Amino acid sequence: MSQKLIPAIDGGRVLAVEVLLLTPAIRNLIREDKLHQVYGVMQTGQNKTGMMTMNQSLMSLLVKRTIDMKVAFEASPEPEELDGMLKKAGI
After folding, report:
1. 3-state secondary structure of 8
2. Are the beta carbons of 72 and 58 closer than 8 angstroms?
3. What are the residue ranges spanned by the domains of the chain?
């Protein structure tokens, strides 16, 4: 788990998280030294496994209007991916 406290629109702080769970698929990727594929499994496994990337967490906070766009991009480890997620959502 990775956590960041970031500024909220209301002036407080809000938690953005990244969650990686050791599922059989993740264990197998680690065992086979395919670490470059772990992020993709995290992205697609959110509903089924509870895993979440930092950008997915930031996107959720944006949709709920808890944080503003500038803060989201500053906190994002992959701003280009976040931009693509926003465009896909029509935001």
Report:
1. coil
2. yes
3. 2-89
Residue 23 three-state SS = coil
Q: In terms of CATH architecture, what is 2-89?
A: 3-Layer(aba) Sandwich (3.40)
For 38-60, b where at least 16 C-beta lie within 10 A, e where not — what string?
Answer: ebebbeebeeebebbbbbbbbbe
The one-letter code for the residue type at 28 is N
Residues 34, 80, 15: CA angle, nearest 5 degrees: 85
Bridge partners, 5 (sequence order): 15
* Rounded CA separation 40/26 (Å): 10
The 10s digit of each residue's pLDDT in 38-66 is 988 888 866 778 899 999 999 999 999 99
Question: Secondary structure of the chain: what % helix, strand, coil (to 5)?
Answer: 55, 15, 30
Q: Specify the 3-state DSSP secondary structure of 40.
A: helix
